Amino acid sequence: MNVTEHDAERHLIEAAQRDPSRFAELYEANFDRVYAFVARRLPSREEAEDVTAEVFHQALSGIATFEWQGTPFVAWLLGIAVHLIARRWRRATKHPEIPADDLEETGILDQTERQALLAQLVDRLPDDQRHVIRRRFVDQHSIREIAHELGRSEGAIKQLQFRAIENLRDQMRNRHA
Amino acid sequence: MLSPDIEQLDAAISAVLGARAPKIRPEDAQLRALVETASGLHFLPRPEFRARLRADLLAHTSQAPVRRHVFDATFAMHSQLKSRASRDSVLPPLFSTGTSMMPVGGSHLAVSFALHVAALAIVFTSGLWVVKNAPHVRTQIASRLSESVDYILPVASGESRGGGGGGTRDKLPASRGSAPRFANEQLAPPAVVRNESPNLPVDPTVVGPPDLKLPQLGQTGDPMATILNPPSNGTGSGGGIGSGEGGGVGVGTGPGVGEGRGGGIGGGVFRVGGGVSAPHAIYDPDPEYSEQARKAKYQGTVLLWAVIDAEGHPRDLLIARSLGMGLDEKATEAVSKWRFTPAVKDGRPVAVQISIEVVFRLY
């Protein structure tokens, strides 16, 4: 995050502290990162959605008392997420406690950033490719089901899936090059 | 034939989605990179969840000033409670208005109980009122429905399009040509292969408004036929030309031209009713909210007219009742992606015009 982005984020936080309805902008800017972080640490989509929702509700409740100290806002959100996930794990008792310094673990933030970027790139895919990707990976429909739904052949759907993933891989490489 | 890469990638994806290890040869670096990218897609959020959470958070923010006001008013009396509430920082559940700063005391519970009892009493008595005044309620609903009849396409009471067909049970399909002129009555059905010396010579006609004109192709025949020769009256029955029944031209029944029955020209867009079944949506993703409408917390219903073609695709979308704030465009965009099982008439899929209500609600 460069200086301009830092400033822009600080202004957004201050705006949300004055007018909570401006929190929507912070939400949009950070949703993908928070969801990506949470989803990789919980076994089901439903749990990931519960925790993500709780993170943003807690953040909204606490935004008035948030003090800007120069660290990215997402770090605060991920901190809330770590505590919520740890609490969930403790309740389940089968899982070991998540270490408090989880966020400092090498590569965690990079991995979250990559995952968030992937989600944003999916939004920019052509309509038909995006639809196939969401049906296949989010709704977990089979190729046959998607083909039936769209009235196309299974081969055509596999080809769309292939092109979409190739497209995403190339764009991810370009961003990290 | 798909390339092996495409098949291998799909097999690997199926393994990833089934929580199994994909089989990739060590030297196949390209497939490995694609599968790595695909593995990340497993953690994509659902767009509906993202939108719902945003709306939920916005709903909370709109209530925030009210809560602050109530809290300020009671600040003097409950300063100790405020500090305790801040310390405990009890957080709001997802679908509530948030943490209350009011103390949990006997009087509050009593007020809450009384309000709940009052609410239940209203629900119960309103139910009783509806039961006692059922005819009055029905009349009101009927009058409301009649107010909106201009917008909703009514179901056709009878056959919605004209048409006709015929033939003389020939072995060959009807040959291409023009239909004869329209007349109010039919004295002789059209024919490609005619009796050259009839006892009573009468011009052949099809039944329909006499001012209807069809393009003339030189020889008599079915305008929708694909073959020119050899001349044939077609495989239908009852005289006339085509594969239908009756003395008309085409695939329908009766003395008109084209699909449908009873005269006139058919084959266009039908309306539901009169033997035409309604199409059913099999893929209907929700429309997105426009940014402007979301900010304004604007809700309502957009009414569209659409033609659902014989393939089940919507086309010719028209906005019959507009909502504005970008929601008309969002509704049109969403519906154009919908897919339907087509309407059916006489066992065959046909295009129909229907109205579609797209409801925008913020939850």
Defining key terms:
heterodimer; A: mainly alpha; globular; B: 363 residues; alpha/beta; 4-stranded mixed β-sheet; 8 helices; flat
What does this structure look like?
The complex is a heterodimer of chains A (177) and B (363). Chain A is globular and about 55 Å long. With 177 residues, chain A is mainly alpha-helical. Chain A has eight helices and no strands. In chain B, the strands form five sheets. Chain B has a four-stranded mixed sheet with strand order 4-5-1-6, with no helix packed on it. In chain B, strands 7-14-9-10 form a four-stranded mixed sheet, covered by helices on one side. A two-stranded parallel ribbon of chain B has the order 2-3.
Strands, helices and their partners?
The complex is a heterodimer of chains A (177) and B (363).
Chain A: H1 3-18, H2 23-39, H3 45-62, H4 73-92, H5 108-123, H6 127-138, H7 143-150, H8 154-176
Chain B: H1 4-17, H2 29-41, H3 47-73, H4 79-88, H5 106-132, H6 134-147, E1 163-165, E2 182-183, E3 206-207, E4 241-242, E5 249-255, E6 258-263, E7 270-271, E8 280-283, H7 291-295, E9 300-308, E10 314-321, H8 327-335, E11 339-341, E12 343-345, E13 348-350, E14 352-360
Parallel strand pairs in B: 2-3, 4-5, 7-14
Antiparallel strand pairs in B: 1-5, 1-6, 8-11, 9-10, 9-14, 12-13
Helix pairs in contact in B: 1-2
